[in-house]
Amino acid sequence: MDKFLTDLLGDRVTEDWWERLVYGRDLAEVPKIMCRILGLETVPDMVARPVNTEETAALVKYASTKGMPITPRGSGSSAFFNSVPIKKGLTLDMSSFKGIELLNGDREEVTVGAGTRWQALDRELRQSGWAVKSYPTSAPAATVAGWLSMEGYGIGSVYYGPVSNQVTKLEVVLADGTVQEVTQDSRPPVAWFAGCDGTLGVITRVTLSIRRAPAAEGHWLLSFNQLESLCEAARELAAAPEKPYHLGYFSSTYFDFLRQLGNPVPEGEVLEVDYEGEKASVAAGRAAVEEVARKYKATILDPDITAHKWEERFYHMRFKRLGPTLMAAEDWLPLQNLGKYRETLKKLSRRLGTKFYSYGTIVSPDKMTVFTGYRADARQKLAYVVAMAVTGRLHALARKLGGHPYSLGLWNTPYLPIIYSPEELAELRRRKEQLDPQGLFNPGKHYTYPVLLAPWLFSLGVNVVSSLQRFTGPCEWE
């Protein structure tokens, strides 16, 4: 171990194999053989846990002089290898950067450490009469900087937009070890760091705009017989002058899975509608919900089931308890094409012998994210690799209907030409060259893809591997 590092951090830097191994994965269950074939070196050479900006800057400068790749990491709660190194190097564990540093009620802002978790932040703010504007469904684990680095949309986004809209200031350590304050209007601006997967610098501090804690809340679940009616109702509510705080979608198959866990669940295709704010706003929301229920012949579900569903909003994936491995694809989708998506999914389910469940977040009258999951067994190596190809088929389905993958990381880099135009991708690469000319921050993500994940080769591989299912059988674990 370099003496400079031990003098700087003491036992907060390590080369211990077992400690480093923890940082070589995220929520994704990826067979080691796949990483070897792709030439990925996912276990970092060392892990450092800085506790302040000065230490972070010193570490970045040290790594830069050594030509060492740098991977910033929050909680590692994604499944795309966003924060998993693929060229070893130095992983910066930013989890010590947590908590409120400054609450400014006059400006309606809060400054927090980059590793602050969303649920903890919202709970602390509410003790002072404030609340965050939006948050991810993974709020118990997801960090503020991590969600920004994925340009997160979640609960509250139909009202407040993406998280980058709420960021007024960042403190960022750049590739040469300098510390820069970044605002919406600076150069570079906040927008450059939103959705960049930590490839431009290390975020150490975030200032967010916040809201007064809502005086009232109203939560409703509406069950529809026809998905087209659900989509029309959602579009109408999202476009109304008095917007809901949150709009969520749950497929009937999603509730089939939950029913196996003994949860109280509704029937049908379900739209979740949540209003928060002043009492008058929530009362107006109730009237709007009742109106769309009448107009589109939807059933307003039992308040107890609705309350339970809201309390469980952070645990959409708890049906993982039904099997050893959860597989999924998460995509952007035009809201108007949700019905076509679900119908095609039913046909794919029958063809593959695999049960799919879907849920999503509606963020505008025209746009939603949809998460489609299925179960598999990582212990059955060949069947599991075949099952992984199903995710590619789900992305292809979304693409056919005008959508694309929600996040990039590593595993969705084959879709770069779909997500970005040539001009947009050229601009992203220009930013990378400007801020990180050595390409040290989280290399291999966001701007290019490994040779074996080239789009044409990846598409061919998905089709070939999928054809093996006739020999492996359904990927569903029973």
Which helices and strands occur, and which strands form pairs?
Layout (H helix, E strand, L loop, with lengths): L2 H7 L3 E2 L2 H6 L9 H7 L7 E3 L4 H14 L3 E4 L16 E4 L6 E5 L4 E5 L4 H9 L3 E2 L12 H6 L7 H4 L6 E7 L5 E5 L6 H4 L8 E8 L1 E2 L3 E9 L2 H13 L6 E5 L1 H9 L8 E9 L1 H17 L3 E2 L2 H9 L13 E10 L3 H15 L4 E6 L4 E10 L4 H20 L3 E2 L10 H4 L2 H14 L19 H13 L1 H4 L6
Parallel strand pairs: 2-4, 3-4
Antiparallel strand pairs: 1-2, 5-6, 6-10, 7-11, 8-9, 8-10, 12-14, 12-15, 13-14, 13-17, 16-18, 16-19, 17-18
Q: What can you see in these coordinates?
A:
The protein is an alpha+beta fold. It has helices at 3-9, 17-22, 32-38, 53-66, 118-126, 144-149, 157-160, 190-193, 227-239, 252-260, 279-295, 303-311, 338-352, 381-400, 416-419, 422-435, 455-467, 469-472; strands at 13-14, 46-48, 70-73, 90-93, 100-104, 109-113, 130-131, 167-173, 179-183, 202-209, 211-212, 216-224, 246-250, 269-277, 299-300, 325-334, 357-362, 367-376, 404-405. The strands form four sheets. The protein has an eight-stranded antiparallel sheet with strand order 15-12-14-13-17-18-16-19, sandwiched between helices. Strands 5-6-10-8-9 form a five-stranded antiparallel sheet. A hairpin with a 4-residue loop joins strand 17 and strand 18 (367-376). Helix 14 (381-400) packs across helix 17. The N and C termini lie far apart (48 Å). 44% of the residues are buried.
